[in-house]
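Hi, here's the filled form for the chain we discussed.

Project: internal
Contact: R.S.
Residues: 130
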Amino acid sequence: KCGHFLLSSSLDCSVVRWDVLKGEPAVRVHLSAPVVGAQIHPYNPVLCVAAVAHNNPPQLIDFSTGNQFPLPVCTSVESKECGLADLANSEAPASGAVGGSRGGNRNALAALATTTFSRKGEVISLAARR
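And the returned structure, exactly as it came back:
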């Protein structure tokens, strides 16, 4: 919203937050797999969410520390159980929340195309290609 930062993601497994005024990378974070998409939090420019390829869960990235937090993945049926709301404002999502008893989440991860924050940044949505 301030217009001072630009985010890029890459198949080289990196996410870069650029300082637009200086025209140079401000922070570069390396992930374990290619990054197919990323978005800066709408009100907190030190946070971003990244969609990671190869059956990896999406990651919440804190640019101030370089920490990465895997996000739980839930189908729409399970979303109330997983509590995807307000992850952008929490310290660290619970680990091991990816997957589930229904078995459909691995397929959702394989087809993960993008992740995005809601308009106010309190919910993170996942989109998969078919």
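Let me know if anything looks off before we file it.
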